[in-house]
Amino acid sequence: MQQAADWEGGRGTPAHEGGLEVAPAEGCAQGKARVSSDAVAGDGFSRFAPSGDELATDAVFAVEQAHLTEVHGKLQKIARDAVAAMEAVAAQAAEDKKNMADELAVNFATWDDVLETHADIVAMNNIIEAHDMANSVQAERLRAAEVLLREPYFAKIELQFKQGQPAKELYIGSAGISDENYRRLVVDWRSPVAEVYYNQVMGPTSYVADGRTISVDLKVRRQFDIRGDRLLSYFDSDVAIEDKLLLASLARGRSAHMQAITATIQKEQNRVVRHEDVPVLQVAGVAGSGKTSVLMQRIAYLFYQHRGALDPTQVFLISPNPVFGRYIDRVLPDLGERNPEILTWAQFLAPLLPTGRGVGEGEVSYERLRAIDAAVAGFEFDRGDFRDIVSAGVRLLGGDAIEKVSAKFGHLPAGPHRVTLMGEELDGRLGARLKSLAALESTHDEVADLPLEEQLRLFGETFDPQTDEEARTLALTYLKEKHADAIEAVRAMGWLDVDRVGRRLLGSDGLTSVEWVYLKMVLTGMGNPDAKYVMIDEVQDYSEGQLAVMARYFRRAHFLLLGDPNQAIAEGTASWDEIRAVFEAERGQVSECRLMTSYRSTPAITDLFASLLPAGEAMEVSSVQREAPAPVVAVCSDEEEWRAALARVVDEAARAGGLTAVVAPWKSEARRLAKLLADTVPAAVLLGEGDSLPAEGVVIVPLKLAKGLEFDRVIIPDASARTFPANDLARRRLYTTISRATRHLTMLSAGPLTELLG
Ligand SMILES: Nc1ncnc2c1ncn2[C@@H]1O[C@H](COP(=O)(O)OP(=O)(O)OP(=O)(O)O)[C@@H](O)[C@H]1O
């Protein structure tokens, strides 16, 4: 066992028994991590594809290639036919519209004429609607064909439904499609029968369709690697111990955007993707276990299940940071689906807050929010809780009037019902006030004094009213725009001084933004009742308060919570049990799943981050990746050495190709590193919130922004005890940092290496 010098005092660092071996090297002490994993290695994969000669003589290969060629040809025809049909519909629609417009004699002379005109218009609309419908069917077909032309299918199953009968062949792909005779060419991966493929059990098995369990005998389970109309290889699995397609997919490495895992969803992942629709599903998964991938597949699955009834605007994905949002935003479009609303916490919260109020820190306990619930239960408004609505210097609604409206509904408790009724009444009063202003001579003069282009923009003509009524109508249009802020303030219950109510109720100086939004929800019922699904990725990074706000805001939605308790990288976030408790309190029962296999990193890197897990948990984590060079550690004895070593490893990484991340613990440290490297390795760029992940190169990125992402190489610039002291938070931060690496990991240490790696 070697010892490396401590650059601060020249003291020796302790040796790391059973962990990383640290050996001196030029400039810094260097070494390789010892690997204990015997996970699936290269040999299994090298047999995956038959060689050229074998392919030529492989009868199955020839049959499958012929089938693929036929299906691909049919898909091309389907796409061509769909385009032609859409063009024909468009031409016909244009013709029909022209004819109908020519024939349509708008006549309101008598009541009979009105009825006839109305009937003509309805008939015209029906024809237009029929065209739209025909087009949307063809558009859907075209979309499916386009998705499939890239890879028509990835698997085939042969199912025997009854003994003695021939087995039925089904090809499974990213979308489902039939030929012109309604014969299924490809079965959608989300269809009930496809479950048999994902269950990875040969022989007698079953699937559920329309609530019925259907028993089948799975005779053949064949996986394909296909590009367009070319079959690259196939693999028949008789026992599902090794998934060759999975190994092939993992060997292909990462790309600048997350890829769908449709063809290789594993059994434990499939349980989450096809999980029954429960109010809350909480999924705990180790780093790289496919939580985000599974989340995307689940969304695609839900769109399929609720086709026509679930719109993407009713699904929300709360993502850890904007870079991550962009990293995942191609997965669903590649599957032929639209993206849900992808928001960070800040993007979710900001529009709910009054202008000028920052999102602030999210650290709020559930207890504190429950105190708000308790206080509001026995509460009554007073005059000071109401604010004048003022716009452009005009007081449009006074606090006294609002208090009177409140008293009118005083028989109701102060809460959402009463506030809604008050809102409606105040909306009416504001409308009446604007109307009375619109009747004033002074307003008409104001409108007449508007620049001409302003009048044209507002009215489509200059202000030249012929009657009083016309003058009032035009003035009202002007006032509605002038006082749009007041109209919006009434709609958003801006007349209620939430801060004042909070101070009164809680006796505190001020509310945090989380408390403010929560109190507003409790008082006014603010929320999104139309959201049907909300997915929170990296759920361990939110406080109880933030989670309770989301649970309350999306009050009718079903939640999917995915996270890794060991990746909680900030203080004040909810523990795994607290997350469950918040959702149990807010939404009732919480169902749970676990994902324990890691797909991202090599066995050596997986072993290393798994060694940071609490005792017991590490034993369960396994890696599926192939082996690659062991992680490298360099302990430097002084700052100068460390700088030189950093420049060297970053430069080497830049030359090696692929994408490297220098993961800094904090934003300030990332900036410092960027400055430090600016002269020596200018290729290394600082990644900001507004950036997308490049396909290759070197990025310097704070850990917070690296959340959920992965890189071919990770460089930890300082794995010293100073950056990672021996405590739980640092342990989780190191685990998260290391697990961003897929194949290569280099750790430098300015001074003694952290004990956590000992
Ligand atoms: N079934 C699978 N087939 C192919 N690749 C997979 C599969 N499951 C996961 N992967 C790959 O493993 C990597 C990690 O997946 P993902 O980012 O979804 O994991 P995660 O659990 O969200 O990670 P973390 O929490 O550490 O950010 C990705 O490159 C993903 O494509």
UniProtKB/TrEMBL annotation:
Pfam families: UvrD-helicase (PF00580), UvrD_C_2 (PF13538). ATP binds at residues 285-292. Residues 264-602 form the UvrD-like helicase ATP-binding domain. This is AAA family ATPase. PANTHER family: ATP-DEPENDENT DNA HELICASE SRS2, UVRD / RECB / PCRA DNA HELICASE FAMILY MEMBER. GO terms for molecular function: 3'-5' DNA helicase activity; ATP binding; DNA binding; hydrolase activity. Keywords: ATP-binding, Helicase, Hydrolase, Nucleotide-binding. Coiled coil: none annotated. GO terms for cellular component: cytosol. The keyword Nucleotide-binding applies. GO terms for biological process: recombinational repair.
